[in-house]
C-alpha cells in the first residue's frame, strides 16, 4: 500500500466510476483496476462494490474512506510543517536572556519583530545570567542567548552585538551618595557595596573588578544578590550602593536613582550568541533580524 493507491481510491469514490476516475487521474483503466485490487488485498477486505452502473463503497470501504481522507490530510500537513521548519517559519526557539534585558527597547523590538514575521515559531525564553547561558549553549540546552562578554577563545560560538550599555552607580534616593554623588570610583572606597558572587558569571565579574582596580576602587561588599533585580531591591532597601548596567534602571523599584561617574567608562556590549554549528533554521531567522540594523531607537 502506498499514498498513490490511497489517492486513486478516493478519486474513484468521488467519481463513482473507475472509467471516469481513470480519465481524471489520468491512468489507463486496467492499470487503475489493478491498483484498486492490490489495495483491497493489502487491506484484507473488499472496499468497493462494482457493477455496470459504477462503484459504491462497502461498509468496510466507508470506514476506510473516512480514515484515508484524514490520513492524507495529516500527511499534507506534515509535509507543510516540515517545509516551514526547514525555512525557519515553524518550531521552537529556546532563547536565554536575563529578566532585566527584556526591558531594553532594542531587545523587545527584536523579539516583537521576530514574532511578527514568524508567528509559527514558539519563543521559549529562559531566564539565565551570562555565565550559565554560555554553558547551556555549549550543551545544546539553548538555541541562542543574549549575554555580556561571550568567551573570546571559544570558536564554537558566534555573536552579534545587539546593544552597548554603560555602567552607573545605583543608590537609594535617600542615601547621602544620592545627594552628593561621587565624581570618581575611588570615592566609593569604604561605602557599603552590594555585589554578586563570582561563580554566577565569572567573566563579567572579573572584567568589572579589573575595571574597578584600575582606577583605585576596591568594593566593600556587605551583601550579595543573585541577580541585578535582587541587587536593585537591596539598594532600594538602603542596604548599600552598587554598580549596575544603566538599562537595569528601566525596571528599578521606587526610591532607586542612578549616577554617571567620570572614570566608570567600561562599555557593556550585549551580544546575541549562538553555536557556530546551529542547525535550527529559526536561529538563522533571528540572527537575520538582529543583523538588519533596524533595532535602533524609534
UniProtKB/TrEMBL annotation:
One GO cellular component term noted in the UniProt record for this chain: protein-DNA complex
Superkingdom in the source lineage: Bacteria
GO molecular function: DNA binding; DNA-binding transcription factor activity
Transcription regulation in keyword set: yes
Protein name: LysR family transcription regulator
Family named by the database record: Belongs to the LysR transcriptional regulatory family.
Keywords: DNA-binding, Transcription, Transcription regulation
Pfam families reported in the protein's UniProt record: HTH_1, LysR_substrate
Organism: Halomonas elongata (strain ATCC 33173 / DSM 2581 / NBRC 15536 / NCIMB 2198 / 1H9)
HTH lysR-type domain boundaries: 1-58
Amino acid at each position: 500500500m502506498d499514498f498513490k493507491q490511497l489517492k486513486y481510491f478516493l478519486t474513484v469514490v468521488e467519481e463513482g466510476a473507475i472509467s471516469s476516475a481513470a480519465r481524471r487521474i489520468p491512468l489507463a483503466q486496467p492499470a487503475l483496476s489493478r491498483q484498486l485490487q492490490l489495495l483491497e488485498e493489502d487491506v484484507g477486505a473488499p472496499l468497493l462494490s462494482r457493477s455496470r452502473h459504477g462503484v459504491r463503497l462497502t461498509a468496510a470501504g466507508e470506514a476506510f474512506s473516512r480514515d484515508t481522507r484524514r490520513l492524507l490530510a495529516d500527511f499534507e500537513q506534515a509535509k507543510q510543517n516540515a517545509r516551514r521548519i526547514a525555512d525557519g517559519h515553524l518550531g521552537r526557539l529556546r532563547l536565554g536572556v536575563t529578566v532585566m534585558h527584556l526591558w531594553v527597547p532594542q531587545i523587545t523590538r527584536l523579539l516583537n519583530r521576530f514574532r511578527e514575521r514568524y508567528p509559527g515559531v514558539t519563543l521559549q525564553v529562559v531566564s539565565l545570567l551570562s555565565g550559565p547561558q554560555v554553558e547551556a549553549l555549549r550543551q545544546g540546552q539553548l538555541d541562542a542567548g543574549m549575554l555580556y562578554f561571550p568567551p573570546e577563545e571559544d570558536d564554537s560560538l558566534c555573536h552579534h552585538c545587539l546593544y552597548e550599555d554603560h555602567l552607573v552607580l545605583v543608590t537609594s534616593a535617600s542615601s547621602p551618595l544620592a545627594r552628593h554623588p561621587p565624581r570618581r570610583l575611588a570615592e566609593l572606597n569604604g561605602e557599603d557595596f552590594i555585589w554578586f558572587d563570582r561563580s554566577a558569571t565569572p567573566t563579567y565579574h572579573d572584567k568589572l573588578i579589573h575595571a574597578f582596580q584600575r582606577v583605585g576602587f576596591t568594593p566593600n561588599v556587605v551583601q550579595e544578590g543573585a541577580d541585578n533585580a535582587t541587587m536593585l531591591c537591596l539598594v532600594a532597601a538602603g542596604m548599600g550602593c552598587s554598580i549596575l548596567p544603566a538599562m537595569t534602571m528601566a525596571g528599578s523599584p521606587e526610591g532607586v536613582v542612578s549616577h554617571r561617574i567620570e572614570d566608570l567608562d567600561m562599555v557593556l556590549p550585549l551580544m546575541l550568541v549562538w553555536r557556530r554549528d546551529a542547525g535550527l533554521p529559526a536561529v538563522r531567522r533571528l540572527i537575520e533580524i538582529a543583523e538588519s540594523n533596524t533595532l535602533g531607537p524609534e
